Amino acid sequence: MEAATAVAAPIPAADAAAKALEKKLLDLELPPFPAPAKKAAAKVVAAAPKKKLAGGAGGYVLEDVPHLTDYLPNLPSFPNPLQNHPAYSVVKQYFVNADDTVAKKIVVHKGSARGTHFRRAGPRQRVFFQPDEVSAAIVTCGGLCPGLNTVIRELVCGLHDMYGVTSVVGIEGGYRGFYARNTVELTPRSVNGIHKRGGTVLGTSRGGQDTGKIVDSIQDRGINQVYIIGGDGTQKGAATIHAEVQRRGLKCAVVGVPKTIDNDIAVIDRSFGFDTAVEEAQRAINAAHVEAESAENGVGVVKLMGRNSGFIAMYATLASRDVDLCLIPESPFYLEGKGGLLEFAEKRLRENGHMVIVVAEGAGQDVIARSMRLADAHDASGNKVLLDVGLWLCAKIKDHFKKKANFPITLKYIDPTYMIRAVPSNASDNVYCSLLAHSAIHGAMAGYTGFTVAPVNGRHAYIPFYRITEKQNKVVITDRMWARVLCSTNQPCFLSTEDVEKAGQDDEEPIVPLVEGENSLVKAPPLLANAGDGAALCNGAA
Ligand SMILES: Nc1ncnc2c1ncn2[C@@H]1O[C@H](COP(=O)(O)OP(=O)(O)OP(=O)(O)O)[C@@H](O)[C@H]1O
Ligand SMILES: O=P(O)(O)OC[C@H]1O[C@](O)(CO)[C@@H](O)[C@@H]1O
Ligand SMILES: [Mg+2]
Fold first, then answer.
1. Which amino acid positions bind substrate, per UniProt (predicted)?
2. Which atom in ligand 1 lies closest to the alpha carbon of residue 380?
């Protein structure tokens, strides 16, 4: 049995860095498992996650995922049926070694600690479920994303084709479907061909996460493997479901498959559907470019998704090469005055006669909110409802040039936000979704639970929920990738030294200016100098 030890073993530290890391991780250690069983409360509150840390030489740390045997120590295991599968029985290497792990950090220095590792995903020699015992459920939650149907299809077909599992149901309409709807039977036949369609055949929703009722439903229906496909909010919900399943002592693997068009999930390489979304965004940018080029002083503005993270805008900008200005939530900007957006637009139009602006929907929210003095609104899941930065920006640009003599502009605004996530996944995302589904199945069959599956540095790994949910993945504006964008657009960087310091607060590496005191950053500009009236530009209702 390969479930790892629950407590960090003493680490023979290679050097001071290794010792420091060891101390940091041991400080994180939570009270020993099992946590005292609490009387069921009316509302289930997630218990603090138990971290499973194991140490090794040279500052190696395994951040392991829970295993069913952690709380059901007498569970029997069985030889993996894949050992007799024509596709997997040829060589032993198809199976993952018990102690294979994946490094979180791939750039290392001589003498630095080996650092955090995650358990490698893949089939094990022994499993903790017999095929006819498995009763699996699949649910999709949160916003749409290309590839949802592919993951559903591959979970159903993978369970069936690799492990001979025939009992798989779909939960309709997101988390609330567990207790508000009947389940729908999923078979390889019923899901065949769904990967060619956008959306999710199961439906999805925001809100409605009632852990007690969800786990009652899991228990009542005898479900023992739950595959939960969704973004950061969904993975937080999955963590509370797992904690409650464990508290009740149920033999049920709770597995998260990370989904987000915004690529805002931490630790993982990228989320499925992102590649498709960037590709789709190109079509809108191309259209904006054609329109802008064909008019006198043509300005094309394209708004792309990205609530808190500007990855789609950043990658679409880099891919297109037609973009003059890319605005993302992570990098503040200002309109008026020296070095401001309007001055830049004027300069670019005088030079080129046209320009294309890509703006992520979450960009500039503070500036707009303050200029319009609007109260915060939230959706059913608690996410902030965004103000429409695209319309706001267009209004500001038009106003600015209206005041200029002999400077007529033609502005075209394209808002393809929902179009880029409602399409079927492209070839590369389809392959990626299949791998995710298979890795998820292998983990559940092997008895792992309370994990999200995803590639880390190119290798699929099982990552504890808390790691995925503790912070969001954001564009690091002090990373070289953002510099590449600035270099490709030749836009102003807008950043003040204060902005850079703030951006660096979350970074693992300290932020160091290139030439201390002499780099190109300016003192904080008057961000709100441009705050004016502005139309009511709310993006939908609360
Ligand atoms: N902190 C939380 N604890 C438990 N459940 C949560 C939490 N946050 C969100 N959820 C639930 O997870 C589901 C999806 O959340 P949300 O709407 O935020 O989308 P998401 O999973 O983050 O996906 P995306 O942001 O990509 O659309 C909802 O049913 C919501 O109620
Ligand atoms: O689907 P809704 O509720 O309109 O939410 C849209 C949001 O969902 C996402 O697509 C994913 O979080 C965001 O990019 C966007 O802000
Ligand atoms: Mg989210």
1. 260-262, 305-307, 361, 418-421
2. 31
Q: Is 262 in the pocket of ligand 2 (CB under 6 A)?
A: yes
- Any ligand 1 atom below 6 A from CB of 478: no
Q: Is 262 a catalytic residue?
A: yes
Nearest CA among 343, 389, 337, 398 for reference residue 367:
389
Strands 354-360 and 325-327: parallel
Show the CA angle centred on residue 416, arms to residues 412 and 421, nearest 5°: 170
Domains of the chain: 51-261+424-467 (3.40.50.450), 273-421+475-502 (3.40.50.460)
Is the preceding omega at residue 34 within 30 degrees of 0, hence cis?
A: yes
Options 70, 262, 324, 429, the catalytic residue: 262
**Cross-strand pairs, 200:** none
pLDDT of residue 218: 98
> Is the confidence at residue 183, as pLDDT, over 70?
yes
> For residue 22, what pLDDT is reported?
43
b/e map of 422-451 (b: 16 or more CB within 10 Å)?
A: ebbbbeebbebbbbbbbbbbbbbbbbbbbb
- Ramachandran angles phi, psi of 27, nearest 5°: -60, -30
- Whether ipTM > 0.85 holds is yes
At 489-506, the pLDDT tens digits run 999 988 776 766 666 665
Cβ of 307 less than 6 Å from ligand 2: yes
Question: Which tokens is 403 given?
Answer: 């005041």
**CB 462, CB 102: distance < 8 Å:** no
- Our answer on whether the CB atom of 423 is closer than 6 Å to any ligand 2 atom is no
pTM of the model: 0.87
First to last CA, the chain: 50
pLDDT band at 43, cuts 50/70/90?
low
Mean pLDDT of 527-535: 32
| Distance from residue 373's CA to the centre of ligand 3 (Å) | 25
* pLDDT of the residue at 503: 63
Best of 45, 141, 263, 270 for a ligand 1 pocket test (most atoms within 8 Å of beta carbon): 141
- pLDDT of 513 above 60: no
Question: For the residues 73-81, what does the mean pLDDT come to?
Answer: 97
